[in-house]
Amino acid sequence: MEGHSQEGMTTRRLVQSRCAAHALLLFAVAAISKVAAQQLPIATGATTVVITPERGYFTEPAIALDPRNPLRVLAAYQDNAHIAYSSDGGRNWAVQSVEPPQYRVSGDVSLAYDGKGNAYVCYMAFNRLGRFNYWAKNSSRNGLYVRRSLDGGATWEQNDIPIVQQPESPTVPWEDKPYIVADNNSSSPRFGNLYVGWTRWTLADSQILFSRSTDAGKSWSEPVEIDKHRGLPRDDNGALEGFAGTVGRDGTLFVVWADNGNIVLTTSRDGGRTFSEPRNVIQTAPIMFQLQDLSRGNGFPQIGIGPSGKSSTARLYVSWSDYRNGDVDVFCTTSVDGGTTWSEAVRVNDDELHDGADQFFQWLAVDPVDGSANVLFYDRRSDPQNRSQTVTLARSVDGGRTFRNYAWSRDAFTSGDTFLGDYTGIGARGGHVYGIWTEKPPVAPEPASTVQPNRRSPEYLRSHGTVIVVGTANFKTPP
Question: Which of 18, 173, 273, 382 lies 20 to 30 Å from 446, alpha-carbon distance?
């Protein structure tokens, strides 16, 4: 009986061991399958190039394509304001500074081409920041400016054309995050108009301001407030910010911004002279959020418009990101009736729902030729610790109903305590897609030291700073 029992125990242990090994094998296969599922296909014709000559305090880039020549590409970034120009589809770049000499700091750049091939860069400039997230407190003189290039970006005029200027005073408003839009639709009665919107911070509130130019950027109208009500005065939820715009073929200007738990839409049909009453059209979770190894994150909205084709009304797209699903996801909604009604939010990133991976700093570009919606974002699905990110391109060819995700960069990077900015950039035309983003390359190990480095010193930035990367993809159908 005792021998029989020992034999049974041995048999049970063998079975248990085999079951454990089988379970371990299944777990390993499942883990491998999960990792394999995270490996996205490479974007068609994908390339990446670093356009900054060395590391530095480089963030918040923008990109624009000449509508008359898709090989002519313009990029901009801070700090301070710089321009990078390519005439060969992004293979080679020439970099130059466009910073205004009368200020210490310039940034928050945005770009536009008009229908005649002229290029414009818009930026803010100031001498010192106000209090963190409460920018109108103890701020300095500041302003918003435009520079022009009449040869498509190769050379730039030296004069800074003011949109608004704020002199030094105890209660000086803070003009922030300007975004420039061009009406380059030849069929539009407002063809050639330029529009800029931004957030004005005061000690008491936040406002959405707007100005327009009808003379190729040489002069700008007196700023007007276009919001329905004012937001809170801090840059960490409850504020009015994230102005973005797009123009339809008939010249209608569509504008969105974030207002607490909503994205707000207004339109102008008279070239920016008057606007419809702003209304909340898309409810969101908070679009300002905290992420691991990131100084701060936001999901400011963007708006784009597709070609009208046979339809009298073109499809509008709005993208943003929020954490309604726990981790941060990217979303898109569309309208086919001029912004009166909108579809349910579509999740743009296609990783597993509630997987704990954050996707953030999205930017949207709708291709005016093929109608595709293209969204760029930082993506942490490949890191189980949700700390490092790659860059993903999501593309929809069915009117925003579904998005296919592509890898635009394979090498993940962590930002640590380095500021990555508040946004990325993307442009698309005729199947050619250009993205721009900030990366922090790996830092070589250094000997231990009790001396804290000066994180703003040139030496530190050259070894620990960020770079600006441009990615290209080509989905153009071969003839």
Answer: 382
> Residue 310: which residues within 8 A CB-CB, separation 6 or more?
none
State in Å, rounded, how far the first CA of the chain is from the last one: 83
Structural domain includes residue 479: no
> Are residues 4 and 77 both part of a single domain?
no
Question: pLDDT digit string (tens) for 199-242?
Answer: 999 999 999 999 999 999 999 999 999 999 999 999 988 999 99
Q: Where are the beta strands (DSSP E) in 311-409?
A: 316-325, 327-335, 346-347, 359-366, 373-379, 390-396, 404-407
Domain coverage including residue 19: 1-38
Are 27 and 116 members of one domain?
no
Write the pLDDT tens digit of every residue in 83-96.
999 999 999 999 99
Q: Quick one: 20 and 63 in the same domain?
A: no
Q: Would you list the DSSP string of 105-147?
A: EEEEEEEEE-TTS-EEEEEEEESS--BTTBTTTT---EEEEEE
CA–CA distance, 21 with 19 (Å, rounded to integer): 5
In this structure, are 92 and 189 located in the same domain?
Answer: yes
User: Where on the phi/psi map is residue 138: left (φ > 0), alpha (ψ -120 to 50), or beta?
Assistant: left
